[in-house]
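Can't paste images in this forum, so I'm doing it all in text. The chain is below; anyone willing to post the predicted structure tokens underneath?
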Amino acid sequence: MSPQQATAEVFLTALKALPSRERAAVLQSIVKDRTLRAILEDVSDRLVIAEEREKPGRLLRDYVAEREKRERSGTRAKR
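Text version of the structure:
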């Protein structure tokens, strides 16, 4: 384990040990911080990309046809 991983593990363990109100307060402080929020957004984007990569692909023409059909009927995409 690298020093960075060890530090991250210590912080995560400490965060998990906090009562839920205090944990929420810490997370709210992180979200309010621009730099930390940007890091969280990057991590969140990577998680979404990883999830999407596991899904089977489909042809662009199939996607376009489905989208056009939805737009004509006024329904939203399924996720």
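Residues 3-73 form one domain. Residues 70 and 78 are 10 Å apart (CA to CA).
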